[in-house]
Amino acid sequence: MNDDVLHELAMLRELGYTHLDLVPTRSSQADDTPDFGAQSTADSSDSLDALRLETHNCTACRLAGTRTNVVFGVGSPTADLMFIGEAPGRDEDLQGEPFVGRAGQLLTDIIKAMKLSREQVYIANVIKCRPPENRNPEADELDQCRPFLRRQVALIKPKVIVTLGKFGLQSLTEKSYAISAVRGRWLDYNGIKLMPTYHPAYLLRTPAAKKDVWADMKKVMAELGIPA
Ligand code: URA
Question: Which atom of ligand 1 is the closest one to the Cα of 91?
Fold first, then answer.
């Protein structure tokens, strides 16, 4: 058994799994393999590049004065699955990449447990610059950054969006959903299926909630045609 498989099994155990029903692997089901957008078209990546440049030059709110790096997003520009978090933390601010700290490692494990990689999905935040001391984003910061996120979604055109925590969900949709009320239920964002789930940072504090997130991710996998 290679390290990746051992890692995935460890992740599933951590998520509360005690046994697995073995089914044929994706490689033996080539015809069913969904396109997770490994290819990109010049146009969409150019536009995403233009948007990235705009965010890098942005000084619309106070966070421009304290950031080290703008954290735009990573992954496939034509991904079928897009994760939307809250805001960069210290590690993300230093590295210029979303979800690379402890919560990010957990998100990466969840993505791997879904038989995907960070390169096959797209990961972004509602706020592109780190709020000082990791405080919650303020309303005007969310308002200034929302158009960037919405353009990012429009360019990537994912089939499914997973929002991680309250800010991802509320800021994208501009609705005051309670995460506890809607978690695990399909919502719609501009014709795109949206699955709200808990933020990985919450899972680090509340490991018992990992089972709920895994249940949500299984719905996402089913929607994308990934065998469980
Ligand atoms: N939390 C987030 O919401 N986003 C990151 O990029 C890192 C931690």
Answer: 7
